[in-house]
């Protein structure tokens, strides 16, 4: 029943187009066409069937109608926050401790910005009235890049969580600011907030560096002017002793006394696991491996053709994405520790222990032993320090743990390799 391009139907003795019928019965022409052509209804059925509403509430907010300010809620963590949906995505804004003056002040500012339409202007393209990308949208796009980039074997690395914390900081403080207007003063404002939260100096610097990296990525994607990133790089890092942010004590090596006292408390109710964890601790102390590397050790990774065995780290290699190989060498003591676990040619990881479980077991055992808490990573510190002291060389220490001299000196070596030389000079000449 088509006449030209318009569909004509007969209804109550009249010939009407679907558009005319729609005006008469209040059902859209598209719905009428679908009911007739797709569902096979008669003209009378298509007109008489009421439109089914899925819900009285919810759905898209009406166009050009101001939306109410999202309510202030109490998060299970004790913080005050608001949550709302915009452009199909859930958004959250945190204000501080629920019931506190700071949170109330921040929520009032948020409400004022909402009433002025700033959040409506940000929706969709992320463009404010003045034009340009907002910091919030830049942070969202950067995190999409981070989640896809920082992966290893299909799993996100710890860098994703750290970048997310930095993105949340800048989003909560200055999310509505145009990215092109983000100045070094704004970055210092975010840094002051971090210091106020009680973070250490190194943590504050690491978060600030990631914010700068976010703008560097944005400049590389032509989302923000390159001059913004260049200006942010001029913000100096917090220096030791010259900032209100505290410096945490440097992680110390695990001592032999701590290790020996802890070993009996490693899974004491499970002798088999106690034997396995003890071997892992002793092996790590002799070789300086990272906890994840000793947990990932497999039979296929070992070259046992000589008296000194070689362990080529595979998936657990922290620097694999940089194209660097990592290998450890097992001397007679390490070989004897490892040999009982190779019986029967095991498949998969030799110790079958995850890094988190391994670390938690050691921490719990050290508490039960009544010694200062220590983690498996401090065994790496212990070997580097011992080698540097014995061989009077940072190069030997770096080689022992498979790291650079700069990293060994800054992180792992806790003595000056030249200390003995100074003592000998003082003894003979002083």
Automatic annotation (TrEMBL):
Instruction: Using the UniProt annotation, give all residue ranges assigned to the region (Disordered).
Output: 54-76
Q: What is this protein called?
A: Tyrosine-type recombinase/integrase
Where are the coiled-coil regions? Answer: none
Keywords on record: DNA recombination
- Species of provenance: Gemmata palustris
Tagged with keyword Hydrolase? no
Superkingdom of this entry's organism?
Bacteria
Tell me which Pfam families the record gives: Phage_integrase
Where would one find the signal peptide in this protein?
none
Q: Where is the Tyr recombinase domain?
A: 249-425
Gene3D superfamilies, per this entry?
Intergrase catalytic core
